[in-house]
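Posting this for the archive.
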Amino acid sequence: MVRPARILLPNTPLHLVQRGNNRSACFLYRGDARRYLEFLDEARQEYRVDVHAYVLMTNHVHLLATPCDDPQGISYMMKSLGQRYAQYFNNRHERTGGLFEGRYYSCLIGEEPYLFACYRYIELNPVRAGMVEQPGDYLWSSYQTNALGAHDPIITPHTLYLDSASDPQRRQHHYRQLFDAPLPDATLEDIRQQTRRGHPFGSEAWRERLQGQTVG
């Protein structure tokens, strides 16, 4: 079966999902998560990708990221990250074979409401999974940075995040308010389906404007 070409555009954010092979665990100890984030930080710098949000779950990872120049920077980053972390994990845990599924999932993200829905989708994963009651209680996500101002060298705020308020404290307050209500089930399912299929997540008008602009 021929896989559809991945849709990539410069300066356009994507939701990315990297899953463990056969849904097996990718992170067994805190040191594993720390090492993955170290590799992510190095890869996003090397391939000029801005990472806006992330969460590390037991057997998969979600990222919200934008290629700065070359849209293929996303693919290079994910390949490097997957290879380096799998080598580390196999050595650390005395295992062999593939750690991640052969291909990560991705979809382009559209206008402001869709972007912030994706932020929330990512950082609320541990809450939906019943791992914590509040997103700020989870150690391995970007919520502490985006909502509370904690320093994280991996995170580059998206322009629309910066435009949400004139100073950091107001931006963080505005961001926390977005989490006062859960995402509607229809939005959750839309994000999941579009990401699995590699289809853009945005308004109909925005999707129409993408026609003829994509690269594989």
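The chain has one domain: 14-195. The longest strand covers residues 49-56.
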